[in-house]
Amino acid sequence: MASPKLELRQLGTTGLKLSCVGFGASPLGNVFGDVPPAEALASVSAALRLGINFFDTSPFYGGTVSERVLGNCLHELKVPREEIVVSTKCGRYAEGFDFSAERVTRSVDESLERLRLDYVDLIQCHDIEFGDLDQIVNETIPALQKLKEAGKVRFIGITGLPLSVFTYVLDRVPPGSVDVVLSYCHYSINDSTLIDILPYLKSKGVGVITASPLAMGLLTDSGPPEWHPASQEIKSACRAAALLCKEKGKNISKLALQYSLMNKEISTVLVGMNSVRQVEENVSAALELAVTGIDEGLLHDVEAVLQPVKNKTWPSGVQQS
Ligand code: NAD
Ligand code: MG
């Protein structure tokens, strides 16, 4: 009997079909702890075997390590190029932000070399709230447009934490010049504010990716990394929610991922993964959701615990004038 397949969803009007669970490669840059090369390779291999076709990285993750490791894995596994969708970013680096046309143009060449690819499917301006949004509109997107014409990138996106940056840019760029937005930490059980702008994004014809369904580790048994920007109040509430699940013999990460997957207006949910076990658990969570639906009782109890911090976030970026 054929095993059930991960659902594929259309990414806006790009024509790309992404697996509903996407492989977030930031952990391959060792940002959530060290990942030995063999474990990275095994994780990417498991992802491909289980139907994940979307891989997201950035030159920022681990100071180029994530891109290099992902590139080596895809190369070693001899993945047919047309069977995968690869996304990387530009403008954010270990040494700081630079969204100038010159830097992002050079950046794409550098990324292609590290990824060992001739083109990326998606290039995204990385965390634009740290840049000058007018520069993104007037300089960065036009520069990426040229790379699109040159065949180095297929589609263009923007990423960031505050949702207002998406509307600012999309209201000002020529229609069709931004294909995708990647939002993170705004479609999780503790914060689902992305919902508010989904109709707007749809009206602009852009594809929507949500990342960090586990709220960058808040909704896991082991808890967030040291650098996590949430307040103590948010961290404590999420820890209490994880404990509640554990007491009931359930897993908060599974519930959290399923919560993000339920909204089909969102094309893919990017989860950071650094072990075969996590890949298997996350794919299973998606397959199980398709068959049995979410555990409504558990979700209700977890939402009650998280109610005091619901939709609370943290500051990110520079004050825009
Ligand atoms: P996440 O919420 O996906 O959490 C990742 C953490 O959860 C890691 O420590 C991972 O090892 C762990 N984890 C994964 N599966 C698990 C499971 N089944 N059980 C327990 N723990 C599990 O956060 P993230 O990694 O920050 O986000 C996912 C991806 O989205 C990133 O890797 C990146 O590709 C992308 N992203 C992009 C931006 C941006 O562009 N600004 C921001 C955030 C995330
Ligand atoms: Mg388009």
Explain how this protein is built.
It is a single chain. By secondary structure, the protein is an alpha/beta fold. Helices cover 39% and strands 16% of the residues. The protein is built from 10 helices and 12 strands. The chain has helices at 37-49, 65-76, 101-115, 133-149, 164-170, 198-203, 232-247, 252-261, 276-292, 296-306; strands spanning 8-10, 17-19, 21-24, 54-56, 85-90, 92-93, 96-97, 120-125, 153-160, 180-184, 207-211, 268-272. Strands 3-4-5-8-9-10-11-12 form an 8-stranded parallel barrel, surrounded by 4 helices. It has a two-stranded antiparallel sheet with strand order 1-2. A two-stranded antiparallel ribbon has the order 6-7. Helix 2 (65-76) links the parallel strand 4 and strand 5 (85-90). Helix 1 (37-49) runs parallel beside helix 9, helix 3 (101-115) packs across helix 4 (133-149) and helix 8 packs across helix 9 (276-292). The longest helix is centred in the middle third of the chain and has 17 residues, at 133-149. The protein is globular. The protein starts with 7 loop residues before the first strand and ends in a 15-residue tail after the last helix. The mean pLDDT is 96.
Helix content: 25-40%
The value of Rg in angstroms is 19 Å
The CA-CA distance between the termini, in Å, is: 59 Å
Largest sheet: 8 strands, parallel, barrel
Q: Please state the structural category.
A: alpha/beta
What ranges have pLDDT less than 50 throughout 5 or more consecutive residues?
none
Bound molecules: nicotinamide-adenine-dinucleotide, magnesium ion
Estimate the mean pLDDT confidence.
96
For this structure, the quaternary state is: single chain
Shape annotation: globular
Order of helices and strands: EEEHEHEEEHEHEHEHEHHEHH
Strand content: 15-25%
- In the sheet with the most strands, the strands line up as 3-4-5-8-9-10-11-12
Total number of beta strands: 12
Supply the number of helical segments.
Answer: 10
